Amino acid sequence: MSTIPACPQCAMENTYPDGENYVCPDCAHEWPITAAASADEADERVVKDANGNPLADGDAVVLIKDLKVKGSSITLKMGTKVKSIRLVGGDHEVDCKMDAGNFMLKAEYLKKV
Predict the structure, then answer these.
(1) Which residues are in the Protein YjdM N-terminal domain (predicted)?
(2) What's the CA dihedral at 47, 110, 82, 73 to 10 degrees?
(3) Which end of the chain, N or C, is more open, meaning fewer C-beta atoms within 10 Å of its C-beta?
(4) Is 19 part of a structural domain of the chain?
(5) 11 CB contacts (<8 Å, ≥6 apart)?
């Protein structure tokens, strides 16, 4: 399997390195090799809680405010402890299980314990 990335413009995989750039022979797009390396590093996003502490899979957190669950009458109360969270991509970064069910929460409403 090749480590050369697909073309970001046409998504074809016929790319090849040429000096300081990758080149796509299908659409003639060229882009720097260093930009492709930094894009891989940008994928590793750090999720931080309300106080700025980095969160990791398996951490325990506490809710810092009451959260109403959209589409139901459930309210998640402030101070509720959530054990062994899982970090996921997207707007709601934290996936967790509580007594009320499974929820996707924003990290800005959580504090690391």
Answers:
(1) 3-32
(2) -120
(3) N
(4) yes
(5) none
My answer on whether 1 and 40 are in the same domain is yes
Locus of tokens 């409403």: 109
Q: Does residue 3 lie in a domain region?
A: yes
pLDDT of residue 82: 94
10: number of Cβ within 10 Å: 14
Query: What Cα–Cα distance (Å) separates residue 22 from each residue in 38, 41, 67, 94?
Result: 14, 18, 48, 36
In this structure, is residue 49 part of a structural domain?
no
Q: What's the DSSP call for residue 5?
A: P
Look at the pTM and tell me if it is higher than 0.70.
no
CA–CA separation, 31 vs 34, rounded Å? 9
- The amino acid occupying position 76 is L
What's the rounded mean pLDDT across residues 43-51?
82
Residues 67 and 40 in one domain: no
Q: Which amino acid is at 81?
A: K
Measured CA to CA, the distance from residue 56 to residue 87 in angstroms comes to: 7
